[in-house]
Each structure stands twice: as structure tokens, then as C-alpha cells.
Design goal:
about 280 residues, mainly alpha, 2 domains
Length: about 280
């Protein structure tokens, strides 16, 4: 048996091993989601979506949790999207290539992999204690904005980098300035990639629990937040609270909350995939 045949056998073994590992992951995921749907789908109704938390499982709802999640989602988007896109465009289009920018790029890439609880500790010290925001929606939004900023910056840079340099040169040849070229040519051409990165980053933010626990978000809130300075809870925290209860009915409530959270997450990821495919189909370099 020659080396070519040996390599072919190795390739086939690796291929089958990869398929086997993928099937294990898919089967476990289907079992997990299936058990949640069986337990929780019967609990989802209008009363469950519009009721306040309660000590009695049959009367408990997720109104404060999903409204708090929407508050956090909106505030985080308002903070993180402009900062992340601006930073990504600056680093790619305007930043000078030297040791400082290289160091900054490495740190931004590394920050994308830092555990989320570290951002919670940072948010606790800066926003809760130093800026005296307390356990408010605004403190939570700033903390989650820090968490997803590296993701948005990296996604923006990669999308901008994918725009061919011929587009820029043609714009300069027509007499456009650097800013006009960036604003009217580069950003529209990279909008699909940027939007995909933004939505995936926000999808991560809406499912985070650890940073919010650290900054002091509440597990039980008997009122709907109406201002950014109100205390709050979110769906992941409400689910965590219910799963810690000994009563099985609360576990059913948690399963229903997980279904609602999964629907929101899948919708956001579906929008991201749609935007990416639409962008790729329209842009033919």
C-alpha cells in the first residue's frame, strides 16, 4: 500500500469521524429542544405573556422579563452599533498601519473571546459604582454594549475590507473626498456584512445572563420598566430563577420561557442569514 492510498484512507476516516461527531451534536440538540417543547409549549398563552411574576407557578408570567429584554436589546443597540461601526470604519479606512494600531487590533480580536462575566465585573465597577447608575437598564445596556463591541468592530472591518479597492479609486477619480467615498461607496457596499455582524452580536447580547447578574439585575421585578433608570429583569434571568425552584410547575414555566427566548434568537439569526445571502447575491465583484 503506497502513501497515496494511506492518505486516501485517512481522509475517509476523518470524513466519517466528522459526520459522526456532527450527528451526535444534532441528535443531542434535537433531544434537548424536543424535551423543552414538550414541557413548555402547553404553558405558552396570552396570560403567560402578559402576567407579572408570581410565587404561584400557574399565575406567573414573563411580562417584566420580555419587556426588560426588549429594553436591553434596544438600548444596547443604540449604544453599541454607532460606536462599533464607527470604530471599525476608522481602523480600516483611516487608521495608520503601525505598531500601535496592530496592538489595538490584536486586543480587539482577543476581547471578542473574553468570558462575559469579566465584562460584568467591569460594568459593576464603572457603571454601577463609579457612575452611580445602580442596577438599572442603562447600566445593563452599557455592560452588554462593551461585550458585543469587539464583535461589531471585527465584523465591520472584515466587511469594509471585502470592498474592492477599485471602488475607492473610481470614487477618488470622480473627485470625491475620503469621507464621501467612505460614506457613499464603501459603507453601502459593505452594509450587508456589517448588518449580519451587528445582528449576530445583538443575538448574543439578548441571551446573556452572567454580566447582568454581576451588575445587580433582579430575578424578581413586580413592575414593568418604563425608563432607562428603572430596575429590570430579562428572560434568561427569569428562566434561571424558575429552574432553581423545587416546584416542577416552575420548571414548566422555565421551559416555556426558553421557547420564547429561542424564538427571538432564531428570528434574529434568520434575519442575519437573509441579509447576508441578499447582500451576497446583489454584490458581484
Amino acid at each position: 500500500m503506497n502513501s497515496g492510498q494511506i492518505n486516501h484512507i485517512k481522509d475517509q476516516v476523518f470524513q466519517y469521524f466528522g459526520i459522526f461527531c456532527t450527528l451526535i451534536g444534532i441528535v443531542l440538540l434535537l433531544i434537548f429542544i424536543g424535551s423543552i417543547i414538550v414541557d413548555g409549549v402547553q404553558r405558552i398563552d396570552w396570560d403567560f405573556m402578559t402576567s407579572l411574576p408570581s410565587r404561584k407557578a400557574e399565575k406567573a408570567g414573563i411580562l417584566t422579563a420580555w419587556t426588560g429584554s426588549l429594553w436591553i436589546f434596544g438600548l444596547t443597540a443604540l449604544i453599541a452599533i454607532p460606536l462599533g461601526i464607527s470604530a471599525g470604519v476608522y481602523l480600516e479606512e483611516y487608521g495608520k498601519k503601525n505598531w500601535l494600531t496592530n496592538l489595538l487590533e490584536i486586543n480587539i480580536s482577543n476581547l471578542a473571546g473574553v468570558p462575559s462575566v469579566i465584562y460584568g465585573i467591569l460594568g459593576l465597577e464603572i457603571f454601577v459604582r463609579t457612575l452611580k447608575l445602580g442596577g438599572s437598564l442603562l447600566a445593563g445596556a452599557f455592560t452588554l454594549a462593551l461585550l458585543i463591541l469587539p464583535i461589531i468592530i471585527v465584523a465591520t472591518r472584515e466587511a469594509v475590507k471585502a470592498v474592492p479597492d477599485s471602488i475607492r479609486q473610481a470614487s477618488y477619480g470622480m473627485g470625491a473626498s475620503k469621507w464621501q467615498t467612505t460614506w457613499m461607496q464603501v459603507l453601502p457596499a459593505s452594509a450587508g456584512g456589517i448588518a449580519t455582524g451587528v445582528i449576530l452580536a445583538l443575538s448574543r447580547a439578548i441571551g446573556e445572563t452572567a454580566p447582568l447578574i454581576v451588575i445587580g439585575a433582579l430575578a424578581y421585578v413586580p413592575f414593568v420598566a418604563s425608563t432607562p433608570m428603572d430596575e429590570f429583569t430579562v428572560l434568561p434571568m427569569q428562566i434561571f430563577n424558575w429552574t432553581s425552584r423545587p416546584d416542577h410547575d416552575f420548571v414548566i414555566n422555565a421551559a416555556a420561557g426558553i421557547i420564547v427566548l429561542l424564538i427571538i434568537t432564531f428570528l434574529l439569526n434568520g434575519i442575519a442569514v437573509y441579509l447576508r445571502n441578499k447582500w451576497q447575491s446583489k454584490v458581484n465583484w
